[in-house]
Structure formats: structure tokens, C-alpha cells
Amino acid sequence: MSVQYSGPIGRDLQLGRRTILAGGLAALAAACAPRGPSRFFAPPGPPIGVQLYSVAKELGEDLHGTLSAIAGIGYRTVELAGYAGKTPQELHAALDLAGLRCTSAHVPAKSFRPAPRTLDDDLDILAAEAGILGFDTVIMPLFVTPPHLPMKLDPGEDVRKMVSGVTARMTEADWRWTADYMNDKGAKLKARGLRFGFHNHSNEFIPLGDGTAMDFLVANTDPALVSFQLDCGWAVAAGVDPADFIQRHKGRVSALHLKDVAATNKPNVLLEMDPAEIGRGVTDWPKLLAAARVAGIDRFFVEQEAPYVRPALDSLRDNFTYLSGGVA
After folding, report:
1. 160-191 in b/e burial notation, b at 16+ Cβ within 10 A?
2. What was the pLDDT predicted at 10?
3. Which of 9, 120, 135, 187 is 20 to 30 A from 39 in CA distance terms?
4. Which domain holds residue 195?
5. Do both 318 and 209 map to the same domain?
6. Strand pairing report for 207-208 and 211-212
């Protein structure tokens, strides 16, 4: 048995049972498969970078092998979170050997953890290290607090509980102090040829006034001095739509951290997240990347958040596959 259709061009199209069945199954598979936003990252689209915090353990065990594996997946740019125990010269050589380009670095303010460089060190040294490593943007990865609310991690204390406790005590005046700090560092880094940005977690979405602390920081920092690297995973974890945030703060978001959040996550501002690999969580990736395109955002860093469900490099490979148009 077959189905006949006589079209205006005068040909009968013969559609046999096998053809109909195969077509139906293919359509069903396509409908059920995760959607990879391939058009966004397809050449000449922006490269997909990786935040090296995702593989901090692996870098410590095998620097060259890990960087080679990252490049082999298809990543072309990286963002630093420390120097992997190496000098800037050693790390630059390793990145160069792997064919990777460093475009930005996370540099904390008054760090409560060991860091090779902080924003309160000599910024001339930081600028010199940026020249060696090749990055042009410095990102502050955690908000800084005024002196009367120090972020001090006591031995054995849980870092998330400590940060959340400090966040809960922050007043509008305290957040204004933070914004002033960011403006000051942005101006000083700009004078040294570097751009400055701020990276959020979920706690900056704590309610403040008519909005959130994150909204307050955007409103009270100078666009010429401070941009924002929106961590989309932490925004989703806080119950915030990252696409809407980008649209509301047009021109202020210069980069994105790409990560997904599992459906089991309960919205919170307590630095708690149920992570998922990209395309396997609740994030609306087509909507998010469409908003990024309209906003002109051109720097993207995949970061696989702990706790890891699989080895980090396996997750980074599937994240890249999804974003570049495949189905992981």
C-alpha cells in the first residue's frame, strides 16, 4: 500500500510504509533530543573557552596532559583561576604548547584562601603578569566586604556558610562600599591597560531595595570601569533568568560563565547548587544565547561546577559537544 499525492508540478510522490515510519521515527528522535545551539558558536561565531577552575585537580597532577586534552576537545581560550602552581612564564609556555590562548583571569580581592595574586597587591605586578600570560581582563570572582564585615574563614569552617552569613549582614551602605571598591580597582586597572569585571555567585541575588544586590552593583558602578561576567548557572540556582538579566542590564554584561543546573535545585542565595552538564539541566539555552547575541557578548567560558557527576574532562567534552551543535 502507498499514499499518492499529485502536486502542481504533475508528479506523483510515492510514500511507502517504510518511508513514513522512518520519517516519523526520525522526527520523534529529533523532537526528544537536546537542542544544541550550533548556529551561535558555528564559525565565524565566538570561540568556546573554559574556566580552568573546572580542572584544578587535573592541572596539579598533569599540567601539559590536561591542557592538551582541553585543546583536543575543541576549546581555544581559557580563563585562569590562579596559576596552577606555576610561574606566569611556565604557565604561558604550557598554554602556548597546547595551542590555547588566555584571555582573562580571576583575581580575588582580600582573599581568605591562598592566591598567587590579589587585587590588593601591587597592580603593576599583576599588569606585568597579564602581559606575560596574554590576558587583557581581570575578573573579581567574589564580592569584597567593608572592613567591619571581614570574610575570614576559620579552620574547619564551611566556606559557603561563612560567605552566606556575611552576605545576610550586608546593608545597602555596605554594598555601596563594595561598588566603590570595584570602581576604584576598575580605574586603576584601566590605567594599566586592563579591563575589570565582576563575577557573581547566587548570594549577590539577595533582595536589596527594589531589586537585588547584583542589580545594585550594576547601578552603582561606572560602565566605563566595571563590566559583569554573568555566571549563568549561579543565576539560575538563585531563581534568576540569565537571559532576562542580560536584557535588563543592556551593555553591562561582557562575558558569560556557561553551566547548567539540575531540576532538583531549589532557588536560593546560599551558594547552593545542584549542577548538571550543559543541556541536561533546566537552562533555556536557545533563549540565553539569543540574548547574548543581541547584547554583543563575545566571551564565553564553560565551567563545570562541583560536585562532579563524572570526571571533569568528560563533562567538559560533553558540554562542548552540546554547545557546538551535537548531542552529548
Report:
1. eebbbebbeebeeebbebbbebbbebbebbee
2. 37
3. 135
4. 37-323
5. yes
6. antiparallel
